[in-house]
Amino acid sequence: MEIRPTTEQDRGLFVDTMHTAFGLFPDTPAEDGGGVWWSALEMDRGLFALADDGRPVGTTASYSFELTLPGEVLVPVGGVTAVGVLPSHRRRGVLSAMMRRQLTELRARGDFLSVLLASEATIYGRFGYGPATYTQRLTVPRRRAALALPRALGTTGATDATDTADAGSVEVLRRADCAEVLEEVYDRYRRAQPGALSRPHRWWGLRAGQPPIAPAARYVAVHRDADGIPDGYASYTVGDDRTLTVDETIAGDDAVFTALARFVLEHDLVEKVVFKHVPPGHPLRWQLADFRAGEVVNPTDWLWVRLLDVPGALTARGWSADGELVLDVDDPFLGGRGRYLLTVRGGKAECVPTDREPDLSLDVRDLGSVYLGGTAPSTLVRAGHVRAHRPGAAALADALFRGERAPHCLHWF
User: Per the database record, which ranges form the N-acetyltransferase domain (predicted)?
Assistant: First the structure.
């Protein structure tokens, strides 16, 4: 078996091979080549696995994204996608060979992180990826969708809902008429949100991905601040069953999110509102007058993270607590193991090799899970995956890795 890089000339064969691996047929792109998710593939970052007769039997690729880390730090990251092996060649080591080659090349490019969305939760842990952000659907019946008056406003003298009116405005546009606004608002949002990925301009131009990037018909509620500047949006559609489904809600702050949520929850001729991507712990359920009206559906992992350079990754992110930890990190898939002294002072970290006794021993996949602050190290200690060598080590790790904001990723790739 041979693993070789792909070129632009391989695009058609790559797409066909990948779809065959999943038993699917590719959609037909628009005349300009866009309108399908795979039009944004960067073919110079793809790999073919070839059988002995030269036929491709496996594919993988990666996108060049930016990932926002705790501390609003932006770093380049490889977003792994289009991973598939033909049914006739599975369980022969094809996937492992492609993953090893891909991770080696990403590291050679200078990336210290790789990310992906896992089609199955049991596949990618053995390659060093761990779930790092989470999301859930929130379903609200329209007849029980009233928002409560915030109780804390009683201390400010507010007496009714009109005293808390949003200073901005909401305008309804068609997706085709506001692509530039969506791109601008999303880009500002993702730069401040830990766990968020960039959406390169070419994605918007090619309409590659899922709504609201894709050309599928959508209405968009665009929120503007008091000066008329767009600072949030909700992309939505209303189905024949009178369910209003929100693809994603992008908001610069909680007040903007609340204004957009109120807009869709008060939509006429709707029986149910479904928010497809709400981060765990979001306050929307608490804002409902009827707390039980907000039903959490399909809580799931989203972005998986893989560290390729432990010191590089740990020194890149921001930190919100001070302290020292010795981490013994095993990377069985790439055949490495290292012990590192992590020292955090004033929001910055140093990470150097050490021979000191470890505070925590963990697999690189577990380090990926805690890296963005969305998974507490103590949870993995209790699960039996991370070993704490002294009392207090897990609690200190929790304090160090916890970010000021919970990580969340909306981008699909």
Answer: 1-154
Q: What is the per-residue pLDDT for 166?
A: 76
- 48, 65, 371, 413: the active-site residue: 413
| Domain ranges for the chain | 2-111, 136-299, 310-401
User: What architecture (CATH level 2) is domain 2-111?
Assistant: 3-Layer(aba) Sandwich (3.40)
| Binding annotation | 83-85, 91-96, 119-120
SS3 of residue 252 by DSSP = coil
pLDDT tier for residue 156 given thresholds of 50, 70 and 90: low
- Residue 219 is a catalytic residue: no
pLDDT digits (tens, 9 = 90+) for 277-301: 999 999 999 999 999 999 999 999 9
pLDDT digits (tens, 9 = 90+) for 351-372: 999 999 999 999 999 999 999 9
End-to-end CA distance of the chain: 28
Give the residue numbers of the binding site for acetyl-CoA.
83-85, 91-96, 119-120
Q: What's the predicted TM-score (pTM) here?
A: 0.95
Identify whether 124 is a catalytic site residue. Answer: yes
